[in-house]
Amino acid sequence: MNEGPSIPVLVLSGFLGAGKSTLLSELLTAPEAERTALVINEFGEVPIDHDLVSIGRSEASGQKGRVVTTSGCICCSYGSDIRSSLHELLDVENRMNGARLARVVVETTGLVDLAPVVNQLIPGGAPAFGLRDHVVARRFHMAGCICVVDVTSVERTLDEHFECAKQIAFADVLVLTKGDLFAGDISHVIGQLRAINPVATIVDRHGRGFDVANVFEPRIYAPSNLSGDVDDWLALERVLAEEGRVPAGNDAPRHGRIRSFSLIRNSSVTYAQLSLFLELLKNAAGTRLLRLKGIVSVEGETETPLVVHAVQHNMHPLLRLDAWPSADRRTRLVLIGHDIDPNAVEKLFDALSGEGKSPPSGKTLALAVAVAVLFLGIGALLCLVLPRLLSHAA
Ligand SMILES: Nc1nc2c(ncn2[C@@H]2O[C@H](COP(=O)(O)OP(=O)(O)OP(=O)(O)O)[C@@H](O)[C@H]2O)c(=O)[nH]1
After folding, report:
1. Ranges for the CobW C-terminal domain (predicted)?
2. pTM for the complete prediction?
3. How far apart (Å, rounded) are the C-alpha atoms in residues 334 and 260?
4. Residues 314 and 226 grouped into a single domain
5. Which atom of ligand 1 approaches the CA of 42 most closely?
6. Residue of minimum CA distance from atom 6 in ligand 1
7. How far, in Å, CA of 34 to CA of 64, rounded?
8. Which of 32, 37, 45, 189 could join 213 via S-S bond, C-beta 3.0 to 4.6 A?
9. Same structural domain for residues 376 and 320?
């Protein structure tokens, strides 16, 4: 087994769509990112962040082959826990011809409960169950916890999702994002963050002098320096782990009614079909849709796919890529939300796209609206959407 100095691990959290992958992509263009390994954890069965993070990846930094993607949330699943992923990275280092990893960045899911994750990385945390755990404890140490905060939505997110407050509380660095879209009072937002975490360094991604490499610089991470809540959450987690009462399995446990599902298609859609699908879905699902992201193959432009992002009620501008980020050229959409019927979303997509054969007729569009209304439960929104559909069909 490869022995050497302990490798620093930085945990990157932030609620769904806050901008974790974007920040990571920025890091990967910096020369300091050399020999950085990524563990990307996703809430859902179809990994997509792997491809999205590679956008903007620096050729010079040679990051390819140093990414481990885990599906299933690391705070929920023994099977994909953080220690297994780190152990895998030792094999990666063994293939680096004598070079050492400089650090590991673990991008968590937007819904992560950080207590069990941190508990697996700090001395005296979750009990070690075998050789693998002991090796990981010897070869890795936690060296920072970064939380990305979307200033446009954090207030509402804090009201509705306790995970968000926990992510903020565990951080030693808070990175504010989307200040460029925010017209409100940033000092009010900072006041809210300070009430949860009085000691973290707060930096603005759009502020003057922002240095992404500095954010990911390894340092001493000491949960005892954070708020008292953090110690209590870790203590509770230790008791649960020792008693074997940590919830396991992806269907379970820590995220209540929130579910993730994906839609995968081999065929392409037109730009108009995609736009209509996104608009109908957004209006139909309303606040039940927390996150939508993916890559879409567009008819006539199949070499340059579109990247789609929706964060709660905000649909971000579609982004065209110069090329597919990997060999997988299928349309892949991941949706995260609650009380959304996956079958209804698939039917809506297929009705609108006609499976990519021909543009949908007025009749098909009417069917699509019916599907949206019946399955997504939005009778009232019909009045909003129908006029647009009819003008589109005309
Ligand atoms: N205008 C603006 N958009 C941003 C900023 N940061 C991220 N975004 C956009 O927000 C959307 C989501 O960003 P991601 O980086 O994918 O967010 P994430 O936290 O990795 O998302 P999940 O992994 O799904 O939780 C994308 O459309 C980004 O381009 C920012 O500072 N300003």
Report:
1. 258-353
2. 0.82
3. 7
4. no
5. 23
6. 19
7. 11
8. 32
9. yes
Q: Which of 22, 69, 289, 306 to mutate to test the pocket of ligand 1 (most atoms within 8 A of CB)?
A: 22
Which stretch of 25-39, 261-275, 296-310 has the lowest confidence by average pLDDT? 25-39
Residues 209 and 330 in one domain: no
> At 127, which CATH number?
3.40.50.300
Distances (CA, A) of 142 to 54, 102, 114, 125: 24, 13, 13, 12
When divided into structural domains, the chain yields a total of 2
Running DSSP on this structure, what letter comes out for residue 392? H
Does the residue 13 lie in any domain?
yes
Give yes or no for residue 246 having a pLDDT over 60: no
Distance (Å, whole) CA 148 – CA 110? 10
- Say how many Å lie between the CA of residue 234 and the centre of ligand 1: 29
Hey, is 129 helix, strand or coil? coil
Nearest-CA residue for ligand 1 atom 14 is 19
Inter-axis angle of helices 162-170 and 228-242, nearest 10: 110
pLDDT higher than threshold 60 for residue 77: no
| Structural domain for 46, as ranges | 7-242
Token digits of residue 292: 């939508």
Residues with CB under 6 A from ligand 1: 14, 16-22, 49, 52, 110, 177-178, 180-181, 205, 291, 293, 309, 311, 316
Cβ neighbours around 242 below 10 Å, total: 11
What the block records as the tokens of 389 is 């559909």
Q: Does residue 1 fall inside a structural domain?
A: no
Question: Average pLDDT for residues 135-163, to the nearest whole number?
Answer: 94
User: How remote is the CA of residue 148 from the centroid of ligand 1, in Å?
Assistant: 10
Report the amino acid identity of residue 63: Q
Long-range contacts of 314-317 (CB under 8 A, 24+ apart): 314/152, 314/153, 315/278, 315/282
Work out which ligand 1 atom sits closest to the CA atom of 49: 23
DSSP state at residue 316: P
Which amino acid is located at 48 in the chain?
I
Q: How far apart are the CA of 49 and the centre of ligand 1, in A?
A: 11
CA of 352 to the centre of ligand 1 (A): 27
- Sign, CA dihedral 343-344-345-351, equals positive
| 34 pLDDT tier (thresholds 50, 70, 90) | confident
Contact, 215 vs 147, CB < 8 A? no
Comparing 14-18, 34-38, 91-95, 357-361, the range with the smallest average pLDDT is: 357-361
Q: How far does residue 150's CA lie from ligand 1's centre (Å)?
A: 8
